[in-house]
Amino acid sequence: MLQPNKLHISTKMSGKMLGIHALNTNTLTNEFCKHMNQTSTICGNCYSYRMLDTYRKSCTPLYQHNSDLLKHVMQWDDLPRLYTVDFRINAHGELINLNHMINVHNIASKNPSTVVTLWSKRRDIINKYQKQYTQPDNQILIFSNPVVDSIMETPPAGYDKVFNVVSDPLNPRINCGSRCRDCTIGKGGTNACYTLDSGVDCIVELEKN
Fold first, then answer.
1. How far from chain centre, in Å, is Cα 94?
2. Is residue 74 in some structural domain?
C-alpha cells in the first residue's frame, strides 16, 4: 500500500533488470518524454512508453506517485533507506526537473553503501546540478545518447559514462546485453554501469524492438 510521503521502490524488475531494485517515474506524463516520443530518436521507440501504455498499465499509479513526490525536494526522513549493493534510477521515466535530481543526490547521500546509478538525457538539468552540488562518491551519472547508431565515445560534461544504442545485432561494439546482475564487462567481471572504475565508460546496447 502506498504511503503518502514515501516513494515506491520497484523490487521485482524483469528482463535484463531482473534482480535490480529501481526508482521509477511515469514516462507517460513526463513532458520531456512526451516530446521526445514524437521524434526520430531512440525515444520514438521507447520501451517504457509501450509497456506502461499496455501490459504494465498497473504500474502507472505507482510511478505517478513517485513523479508527484520527486518534482519537489523531499524531506530527508521521507527518503528511502536502501539495502542493496546497487540501485537504478530511471529504469522507467526521466528527470522531471532540478528538484528531482536533488532528491536523487540526497538518496545517494543517505545511502553511502549503495551505488546509485542514474540514466538521463537531461543535460540541462545535470549541468545545473553539477554547478550547485558536489556529486556523492557512490553516485554514477550515465548519459543516454538519444541518437541510434551514432556512438558517443566520451560522456558529455557532468556525466561519468555514456550509454549508446545501435540497430545492427552484429555491431562489434555491442558490450551490453546480458542481465545487469550478471554483467561481466569491465575489469575483473565488474558491472560497468554500477562501477565507476570498471574501465568501461562507453556502453553499447542493441536497440529493443
1. 7
2. yes
